[in-house]
Amino acid sequence: MEKTISAIATPQGAGGIGIIRISGDRALSVADAVFHAVSKAKLSELPGMRALYGTVVDRKGTVIDEAVALVFRAPHSYTAEDVVELQCHGGSAVLRRVLARTYEGGAAPAERGEFTKRAFLNGRLDLTQVAAVMDVVNAKTDAALKIATGHLTGRFSDAIKAMRRTLLEEIAHIEAAIDFPEDEIEDVLLCDVQETVNGIRAEIAHMQKTATAGRILREGLTTAIVGKPNVGKSSLLNALLREERAIVTEIPGTTRDAIEEYAEVGGIPLHIIDTAGIREAKDEVERIGIEKARDHAESAALVLALFDASRPLSDEDQEILAFLASNPAKGMSLLTKADLPAVLTEQMLREKIGGVPILSLSAKTGEGLELLAETIAARVYEDVSESDASIFVSTEREAEILRETDAYLFSALHAIEDAIGLDFISIDLRAAWEALGRLMGDTVGEDILDEIFSKFCLGK
Fold first, then answer.
1. Residue 198 has what pLDDT?
2. Which listed residue, of 92, 155, 201, 450, carries a Cα 20 to 30 Å from 184's Cα?
3. In what order do the strands lie in the sheet containing 268-274?
4. Are 297 and 303 spatial neighbours (Cβ–Cβ below 8 Å)?
């Protein structure tokens, strides 16, 4: 019999409610040892999906806290085991006391991600759904949440399962043809296999296109704001955050070190870095800040290069223009202070940086900010549809397994074209089927599981 485990399932710190989760064969008896219902009923006598109000008491019967106990009977629980959740007040001291009482009642401390690991081992979740659990918890935007819930509710899994079923059918047909060879049947069969494999490869190609957008929506798009002093970098940061995060003054060099914040812009989570103004440094501290600004521009996935529309181009601007010209794929040029009379125009910039997008905006009035958000979103969703978010590839592990699967399918097509025999085609198709199985967790090593669940928090 596997041990019964317990842990605090809510975040640390004070809150209105804190939850102790208990899971395992002895969950109900452990809970009965520490929880006394006002109605005198025993939790072990209740059916699933029931709640009782009462108190958690110590060994002497002294009340530790009021609580509500929720009973979930296997397999209708998060872990597919018997589960009891004790909803107490959310103070850290009371939760530690209640947790300690569950240990005294016979529960063992849960390891990181052990509740979710049990859900996986008990067949309630597959590995793509397991990864989605923490993505739901960590989602920073509605778009990221849509991807995570799509995976958690099984939409991504359903697409993978459908591919596996189709491959297994073709494998069965091929192996039947090997056992009962007939030339005419083989020709027809190979035609069908080609069509099927090409169809699956097209599905995989579509999924692979979503990998970049999926990663960005999951982790955030690293975005550097660069420009010369007093061009409006900090004003733009404040406008995107909708708060006064950075100091804005007329004094050049106010921002001497990078300021990093997260913001949702057009539904896209941006990891924004407001950098020091690029110019000839006045002292050692500013020189270091400017060097950091250049480094952030090099490493960022998106660079918002700002130019003051109310002033002509300067030597500092020329350095930034040169960077945009050499990095057009990740650059976006913003003409700031659109509320002032224009000296520098979009046409003048376009002559210097070609196809790099150019937008005019005013952080003061808000002009152009909505268009900026739409442009960033369009860049992220390039080649994919936002409506397909629930089947986006969201991790590098998923992307790598899909690449491996496609390689096996490509090999199978070559085997058909080169007429090297049904056996070799069957081997490649089975390898593709097994690779997709690893994606779901059907065939995965303990070391991979340990790595995945080590990233979870206690109580999940």
1. 95
2. 201
3. 259-265, 268-274, 221-226, 302-308, 331-336, 358-360
4. yes
SS (H, E, C) the chain: CCCCEEEECCCCCCCCCEEEEEECCCHHHHHHHHEEECCCCCHHHCCCCEEEEEEEECCCCCEEEEEEEEEECCCCCCCCCCEEEEEECCCHHHHHHHHHHHHHCCCEECCCCHHHHHHHHCCCCCHHHHHHHHHHHHCCCHHHHHHHHHHHCCHHHHHHHHHHHHHHHHHHHHHHHHHCCCHHHHHHHHHHHHHHHHHHHHHHHHHHHCHHHHHHHHHCEEEEEECCCCCCHHHHHHHHHCCCCCCCCCCCCCCCCCEEEEEEECCEEEEEEECCCCCCCCCHHHHHHHHHHHHHHHHCCEEEEEEECCCCCCHHHHHHHHHHHHCCCCEEEEEECCCCCCCCCHHHHHHHHCCCCEEECCCCCCCCHHHHHHHHHHHHCCCCCHHHHHHCCCCHHHHHHHHHHHHHHHHHHHHHHCCCCHHHHHHHHHHHHHHHHHHHCCCCCHHHHHHHHCCCCCCC
Q: Which class for 123: exposed (0-12), middle (13-18), buried (19 or more C-beta within 10 A)?
A: exposed
Q: For residue 261, which phi and psi values (nearest 5 degrees)? A: -150, 160
Long-range contacts of 13-18 (CB under 8 A, 24+ apart): 13/90, 13/92, 14/90, 14/91, 14/92, 15/90, 16/89, 16/90, 17/87, 17/88, 17/89, 17/90, 18/87, 18/88, 18/89, 18/90, 18/91, 18/94, 18/95
